[in-house]
Design brief:
Strand order of the largest sheet: 3-1-6-7-11-10
Largest sheet: 6 strands, mixed
Protein name: DJ-1/PfpI domain-containing protein
Oligomer: single chain
Radius of gyration: 21 Å
Helix content: 25-40%
CATH topology of the largest domain: Rossmann fold
CATH architecture of the largest domain: 3-Layer(aba) Sandwich
Strand content: 25-35%
Pfam families: DJ-1_PfpI (PF01965)
CATH class of the largest domain: Alpha Beta
Number of helices: 12
InterPro entries: C56_PfpI-like (IPR006286), Class_I_gatase-like (IPR029062), DJ-1/PfpI (IPR002818)
Distance between the termini: 11 Å
Family: Belongs to the peptidase C56 family.
Number of domains: 2
Structural class: alpha/beta
CATH superfamily of the largest domain: Class I glutamine amidotransferase (GATase) domain
């Protein structure tokens, strides 16, 4: 995989931070050995911060995938919690290569916190990378570092405040569809982005800015197809999907009976105190990128089945089962996360294979002839890669990228 990083990134957190903009970069960086410290003012290691999903679910935010009519306001759904792994009062900016500030309403509160504003200003003074997303550019304005016409982008409601602070508003040109929203902007050491739709490109820019080089041992970059349905687990589709985009791969998502641009509802499982099982909560929408009839197995090197409840839907669909079997027959890579093993078990892909499994798929794996490695978060057996749970996504991204010949070297 290349040398693991001796890099450190600080993530500034707070209540109602945007879930995608927190979890995707966190797990992606951890996959390649970058140490990420998550802190929040007034909180200590082990404390939790509520995360929220911001999505365009109606209201005045009228959006069509084929043409953006209006992009005005988003809805906010509480999804789950992030456990902090470091103490805010112990942060020494000199010890980090970058700071990430996700979007979310917490930035409004933190922009009035003198210690937070001073910390951001100190990162700027030291010439460290600062990544802001959606609304967190408010902290740049509060710290007085947007002056002299620095190019900056954000959610469009931030435009007047960026300009009033002396910044130069940047907006991606030529956007006609939701899939066109891909770019961030970097000016000096400052990376800014509209929000989570751009995470694939943004993570690539971040990796390169802290000194990484992405290489591939194959003649062509790998291509991956994600097989999903409604109630797919949010992070187990979005983390690897955006991660492999960042690594320069062709990445698509397909669902039986859906066309390009159709939505798949996603869910998040949040383990609340005192419960045996996690609570299922609605999260972002995920948009299918290719129509079922346009998929050719020969166009992809790997198929990935994310977790959630969608594998239970897919296992009852002959087209979905048949697609997995075609990938296996052609000697392609096959991968699954969490409940994704449910579908692989039904196709025969797990027979005589070593796998990782959460409690939800252990019986399915065993009766399908698979061997569960109980102590492993993620297992690679020839061209099969499996992860036990969503929390094992960093290990999964690392293992699958290695299997596909991708390296991140610092």
């Amino acid at each position: 995989m290349g040398s693991m990083a001796q890099k450190s990134v600080l993530m500034l957190c707070g209540e109602f931070m945007e879930a995608y903009e927190t979890i995707v970069p966190l797990y992606f960086l951890q996959a390649f050995g970058v140490s990420v410290h998550c802190v929040s003012p007034g909180r200590k290691t082990g404390d939790k911060c509520v995360m929220a999903a911001h999505d365009l679910l109606g209201l005045e935010a009228l959006i069509e995938v084929t043409f953006i009519v209006s992009l005005k306001i988003y809805s906010e759904l509480v999804v789950d919690h992030l456990t902090l792994n470091a103490n805010f009062h112990e942060v020494i900016p000199e010890q980090y290569d970058a700071i990430i500030i996700p979007g979310g309403r917490f930035t409004e509160l933190l922009s009035t916190d003198e210690k937070c504003v001073s910390m951001v200003a100190r990162f700027a003074e030291l010439g460290k990378i600062i990544l802001t997303s959606c609304h967190s550019q408010l902290l740049l304005a509060a710290a007085g570092i947007l002056g002299r016409g620095m190019k900056c982008t954000a959610f469009e409601s931030m435009k007047p405040f960026i300009e009033l602070s002396g910044g130069s508003w940047w907006q991606q040109p030529g956007v006609q569809t939701l899939f066109d929203i891909t770019d961030c902007v970097m000016d000096g050491k400052f990376i800014s982005t509209l929000g989570w739709p751009t995470l694939g490109n943004t993570l690539r820019v971040l990796l390169e800015s802290i000194g990484s080089k992405i290489t591939c041992s194959k003649e062509t970059q790998p291509s991956l197809l994600f097989l999903i349905g409604d109630c797919v687990e949010d992070y187990s589709i979005n983390v690897p999907f955006k991660a492999f985009q960042a690594l320069g791969c062709k990445v698509d998502a397909v669902s039986p009976n859906k066309k390009k641009g159709d939505k798949c509802a996603t869910i998040v499982h949040d383990l609340e105190e005192g419960r045996q099982l996690p609570t299922e909560k609605s999260s972002h929408n995920f948009y299918v990128t290719v129509a079922w009839e346009d998929v050719s197995v020969d166009d992809y090197d790997c198929i990935v089945v994310p977790g959630g409840r969608s594998p239970e839907l897919l296992v009852m669909n002959d087209k979905a089962v048949g697609l997995i079997k075609k990938f296996v027959e052609k000697g392609k890579f096959v991968a699954a996360i969490g409940m994704g093993n449910w579908l692989l078990a039904a196709t025969g892909a797990l027979k005589k294979k070593r796998c990782a499994s959460g409690y939800g798929t252990k019986v399915a794996v065993k009766v399908a002839g698979g061997q569960i490695l109980e102590s492993e978060q993620c297992v690679t057996d020839d061209k099969l890669v499996t992860a036990a749970t969503t929390s094992d996504l960093p290990a999964f991204v690392h293992a699958l990228s290695t299997a596909l010949g991708l390296s991140v070297v610092f």
